[in-house]
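User: For my dataset I need records formatted as: sequence, then structure tokens, nothing else. Please produce one.
Assistant:
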Amino acid sequence: SLEDGAVEVTFVVQDCAAATPGTPTEVCGEQGAFNKGAAEADKVRAFNTEPLPAFDQMRDRDSEPVDIEELHKTRKLRKFDRVELTITELSANGEGVSRHENGLVIFVEYAHPGSRVLAEVFHRRKNQAYAKIVKVLEPSQDTVPKVCKHYPICKGCRTQDLAYHAQLKAKQAQIQKTFRKFADVEVRPIIGSEKVFNYRNKMEFTYGTKKYLPGGPAKELQTSDDFVLGMNAPRVWDKIIELEECHLMPPVGTEILNFVRNRTFESKFPAYDNYAHEGFYRNLVLRSATNGSGEEEIMVNIVTSVTEATDMLKPLAGEIARRYPSVVSVLHSMTTSKGGSAVGESEVVLYGRPFIEQSLRGLVFRISANSFFQPNSGTAEKLYEVIEDFAELSPDTTVLDLFCGTGTIGLSMAKKCKAVHGVEIVRAAVHDAENNARRNSISNAFFYEMNLDLVKMAPSELDLPKADVLIVDPPRAGLHPRLVKWIRLTRPQRIVYASCNPSTQFRDVDVLCSEESPYVLKKIQPVDQFPHTPHCECVVSLELREDYTPPSEHFV
């Protein structure tokens, strides 16, 4: 207590440009003036502290000084805080994972296991935070040089500068972590991809009017009105990264991308504006395949708003075909959708044929513009071998293949079983599957168009055969709860479940293998179809329990 009622207090500066953060500072309460401390505002962000306890809990000025380091450990991290972190693993989304001194889990973009980084928090939740690298203090031993000029702005390959063996190790660990509830089932060693670049057989590029201009926090949302073709920007729905190269697709894909961008810009027709819902050019979709003769086939699909000016694109199609001999199909698809879907509602062949052909496991498959096909043709062969092994087929086996796409899985094993019945929602894919069966002289395969998410009938009312082996390869969202219940009621002897999203796969397996369900998990096999991304394919097999007694449940 000082004269005139003034109070002298020793405290720690929380956030102030006029004092050194973390410095014990004497302040006169009446005057509000600083007697000690220097202006170092740039340190504020690196060392924020929690407000001090209530006045009656504060130490007397003659007692021990405040332990600044202890305060730093126990305080809550805030946005813009900078912390030194050691990265221990990769998350399912590809971020580096670290645990702060106060127990908080922090996800750091583009950080590798084994590295030590200075990171800045940009988003905070109750039990976790998200940060970006400010400086790499100690790089990981598995860090390798980047290949693409757009990395890391484009997030098409988030782990491009991490050695591939380290990527496989991280994905193996993620599958083990996802299925840790089934600890008695061994996760087999992951099967890697022979090609780690130029492996994708389908790439979708988006037209737009707003170009993404990368930079610091103040520049991340800057745009310029333009004619842009590339990939959607991260965390920004309406802005496009203009790509000049992409190492995920075959090299000719980059050449076609740049050529089509230049020619469509010169046409003076506008790119689609997501705000005004106006414009002509919507997407460019490139698909590739290797036919039965070992030759590359390319499909170029230009997606636009609905128009009668299809003839306007024919000169461009002819020019593409002349410049790139591997192009066997140029299509013009049209859509009325206001979203970002690259699926056309109608389609016109501008050059060649409406499909490309892929050779796989001794068969040749036709792939049209909207048909699903495994994105990595090389690894797909290994994936199908695993599925067939898990199915344990015999000449008397009836296979039901749900989400069958163009029928590739079922047709590849049709000659080893009694019959294959495939179900698919996309009509064009069903037609492709039927054509593929005829093309390969397979007479025991049958295909049906059906939306499996809308199954509302009991098994006896659904016009599908009783299956011995059920194969499912659903979209990333997994199986609809009604479909899971339908599977439990139909009780095939064995289920082989392939998924590119192990999280939703585990959710469905957990229900199918619960105490009141008839199945038990037997095998788990990861297969990497997506090098340089956090995604991983996983195949599991479930078998009917011998001691299972069916309950008297009804389909609702």
